[in-house]
Structures are given as structure tokens and as C-alpha cells.
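Researcher: Let's continue the batch. This sequence belongs to Phosphoesterase, and it's 163 residues. Same format as the previous ones, please.
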Amino acid sequence: MLVAVLSDTHAPRHWKGCPAEVAKHLRGADLILHAGDVCTAAVLDELSAFAPVHVVLGNNDGPDVAAWGAPETVELDLAGLRVAMIHDSGKADGRPARLRRRFPDADLVVFGHSHIPMDVVGAGLRIFNPGSPTDRRRQPHATMGTLLIEDGTLVEARLIEVT
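Model: Same format as before. Here are the C-alpha cells for Phosphoesterase:
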């Protein structure tokens, strides 16, 4: 299973439409995870043309994103891998242990909010932030992620520069 991972698209201010480099990585994805701050449900409709979408509510998301189906957290079984998703994981200090307590059954937690791409293992948990494909803030590149999952195992997690 190939999963494309996005966060913090911030439409329409930063996402005017799916960037070509992002679309390249969405094609062929079995599923898309969006870790919040979509800002408008139209982005979710656009992403749904590539693959089914699971999204969580970000701090900048409005009622239209919630109505589209974005809860505060999501817990999924993806090809046997237990994946949780939340927008804001809190401060960096103690993050893996805090997310382990919040999602005790998860193998992987996907989050956003900081716009800082990250793939870290700690407290018996892998945590993954794809960064932002449109609003890099102080990062050198805009980014997204992909996850390759086979038989309950995360075979590969990639952070991809899209600018």
C-alpha cells in the first residue's frame, strides 16, 4: 500500500491548486492522509480525485472541513499497520512519549502543524510529519511524504522535497 502524506496546505492563501510536483507523487497512491490545516474543503475534493482521503481537523480549518469529515484524531489500520493522526502534537520536548500515551496502540503517528518535516523513532513509536507542500516557512524546501506499507510493516517512509 502506497500512502501519500500531506499537511498544512493552507488554501487558498498558499494552495492555489495541486502543485505539479505534488500531483506527481499523488498519482498511484492508494490512500492520502492529510494532517490538517487544509483551510478549505475544496482541497479535499481535489485530493479525492487521486485517491481516498483521510483528514484531521487543524487549528486553521473551518466548519466546511469538519463537515467534509475531519475529526480531531483518526486511528486507522493500513495494511495491518496501526496509524494514528492528529494535527498538533504539542511541544517538541517529550513528543514521542506524549504521543505514545495518547495513541497506545499505534505503530505510527502522523501529525502536522509545525511545517517541519520529521521522521523520528522514540518511546517505541515512529512519528512522521510531512511538513508543508506549499508553506515552507523557515524550512529550505516545501515537502510532503510517502509511506510504503506491506503486511503490517512500514517498509519505507520518505520525506520528499517538492520545491
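Researcher: Any comment?
Model: The first strand starts at residue 2 and ends at 6.
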